[in-house]
Write a structure and sequence with these properties.
Layout lengths: L2 E3 L2 E6 L1 H7 L8 E3 L7 H8 L3 H10 L7 H11 L12 E5 L2 E5 L9 H5 L2 H11 L5 E7 L3 H10 L5 E8 L5 H8 L6 E6 L3 H12 L2 H9 L2 E5 L5 H20 L9 E6 L4 H12 L3 E8 L4 H8 L1 E3 L20 H8 L4 H14 L1 E3 L2 H10 E5 L2 H15 L5 H17 L5 E5 L7 H7 L8 H12 L5 H4 L11 E2 L4 H9 L1
Parallel strand pairs: 5-15, 6-7, 6-9, 7-8, 8-16, 10-11, 10-15, 11-14
Antiparallel strand pairs: 1-2, 1-3, 4-5, 12-13
Helix pairs in contact: 1-6, 2-11, 3-4, 3-11, 11-12, 17-18, 17-19, 19-20
The protein binds pyridoxal-5'-phosphate.
The site of pyridoxal-5'-phosphate (PLP) has 17 residues, from α12.
Length: 494
């Protein structure tokens, strides 16, 4: 399997090369040349395997320059005892045709762990395979969860350093303390004034600074990303769609071969894109429902065909989805247009120049064959948390609630009652204040103090790493302006 750039279909790389580079020099994202085929027979075989073995098989279909043994070893390490559920990504049945796919049982209690426990293993192995002698500095902008998960994944990994930038007022108290108290000798964390898009565009500017790249090269370093644009993050995410399907078959919720819908709380379009990859491989997925919060740029795009980032930015109680530029949509445009790189370039040029682009109707019709969409405001998010807690005794976080609400609206408006999984992307304890208020508690005090109060009120188990946050002191306290980010990286690499 070879990989192309979304902006240059002629570029032809191995998976190890694509993972090492992260982003193509032309600014494009790496995409597989084709989708491997997951037959019904294969899916049946996967049903009897544990999560690490499922992961090795599914990723192995893309990663031909990794041996099966190598992948088995990596997935056993990535999905081991640091997950507090032996199923790794358990499926919880809520009613006859609704399940919740819980992706937050890893070390940082958000779905980002599913990919970021794996990425450092893939990246360091890829560097060896490609003969890369330099050391790698991972740069990441985070809307909250990526940063911590990347720090935890790369902590003390030899030959790597990692620097994380988060928007000063764009993350929850728990998320901020998770990052600022990060341990490890090779880690750096800094707040940036502004919102997530400021932090992300600051990181992108550093990546495209040729002079800085040469400077680092001369010192034996290169930059890579842990953002969801890296192929090494996207492929591990394909696994849990397949795994969830197996679990729903095994639980008797669906028959083998019957379709399932997934409703995904979406920001950068990385998670749901992995679902699209699973569908392209042949996993029986009906609809992928793209759920947004008040930042509903994707809802508008799927409905109208125009992507337009010129709109107010809202800071919401589901901050990991507070995004106006969904980077992974670029991959979708490439696949949608059957690999038309000049079409992708013209869309991306439009986005840079005017903040908008329009996709022709025949392609949008194709998009809507797979993707449905919807958005959910703040009050509806809280009501959904209250309702699921009251009716099913299940405590969900704000992002999951957005998706759940959108699924219910989708069912009402379409009468499509296909068995569906709500993709649950974070532990409710990462967003204690909002969740506590939603179930009728009082959210006085800081996020970390609220953990106990939420536990008392809900009876839901607190993930151990979050319980351990109490009493931790921040180790990284700096807050900088966007234009100071490059200098901060220079100092950090030292
Ligand atoms: C990152 C994140 C999302 C959005 O996922 P994308 O891949 O960016 O679409 C949703 N929920 C939570 C909790 C997240 O951390």
């Amino acid at each position: 399997m070879r990989f192309h750039s979304t902006r240059n279909a002629q570029l032809d790389l191995t998976s190890a090369q694509a993972i090492t580079r992260g982003l193509a020099q032309d600014g494009g994202l790496f995409v597989p040349e084709a989708f491997p085929s997951l037959t019904a027979r294969r899916i049946e075989e996967l049903c009897s395997m544990d999560y690490p073995s499922r992961a090795a098989v599914v990723m192995g279909m893309f990663l031909e320059d990794f041996s099966a043994q190598e992948l088995e070893e990596f997935t056993a390490r990535a999905y081991g005892a640091q997950f507090d559920d032996p199923a790794v990504a358990p499926v919880r049945l809520i009613d006859r045709n609704t399940a919740v796919l819980e992706l937050w049982h890893g070390p940082t209690s958000a779905f980002k762990d599913m990919a970021l426990q794996m990425l450092p293993l893939l990246l360091t192995a890829s560097m060896k395979k490609t003969g890369e002698q330099r050391r790698v500095c991972i740069l990441t902008a985070t809307s909250g969860d990526t940063g911590k998960a990347a720090l935890e994944g790369f902590r003390n990994v030899p030959g790597t350093k990692i620097m994380v930038f988060y928007p000063k007022n764009g993350v929850s108290d728990v998320q901020a303390l998770q990052m600022t108290s990060q341990e490890g000798d090779n880690v750096g964390v800094s707040a940036v004034t502004g919102n997530f898009d400021d932090a992300q565009s600051g990181v992108k500017a550093i990546f495209s600074d040729a002079a800085f790249r040469e400077e680092l090269d001369a010192r034996g370093w290169f930059l890579s990303s842990a953002n969801s644009i890296n192929l090494g993050r996207l492929l591990p995410q394909v696994v849990y769609y397949v795994s969830a399907y197996c679990d729903m078959v095994t639980a008797g919720m669906i028959g083998m071969g019957a379709p399932v819908n997934f409703c995904v709380p979406t920001g950068n379009f990385g998670n749901i894109l992995a679902g699209f990859y699973a569908k392209q491989m042949g996993l029986p997925i009906g609809k992928l429902i793209c759920a947004s919060n008040a930042n509903d740029v994707l809802t508008d795009f799927i409905r109208t065909g125009t992507y337009d980032r010129n709109r107010p930015f809202f800071t919401t109680i589901s901050p990991s989805m507070d995004i106006l530029v969904s980077s992974n949509l670029e991959r979708m445009l490439f696949h949608l247009s059957d690999g038309d790189d000049s079409f992708v370039r013209s869309c991306m040029d439009g986005l840079t120049a005017t903040g908008r682009y329009t996709v022709p109707e025949h392609l949008m019709l194709r998009m809507r064959e797979t993707f449905a969409c919807g958005c959910c405001g703040e009050e509806d998010t809280k009501e959904q948390i209250a309702k699921i807690f009251r009716d099913h005794g299940c405590l969900i976080d704000t992002h999951t609630a957005v998706a759940y609400h959108v699924l219910e609206e989708y069912r009402t408006s379409t009468c499509d009652m296909t068995p569906s999984a709500v993709v649950s992307t974070a532990s409710p304890y990462k967003f204690c204040g909002a969740v506590l208020e939603a179930i009728g508690g009082e959210a006085r005090g800081s996020g970390v103090e609220l953990i106990d109060r939420l536990a008392e009120r809900s009876g839901a188990m607190v993930p151990a790493p979050l319980a351990a946050l109490k009493g931790k002191r921040p180790r990284f306290t700096q807050c900088i302006e966007k234009q100071e980010m490059l200098e901060a990286v220079r100092r950090f690499i030292g």
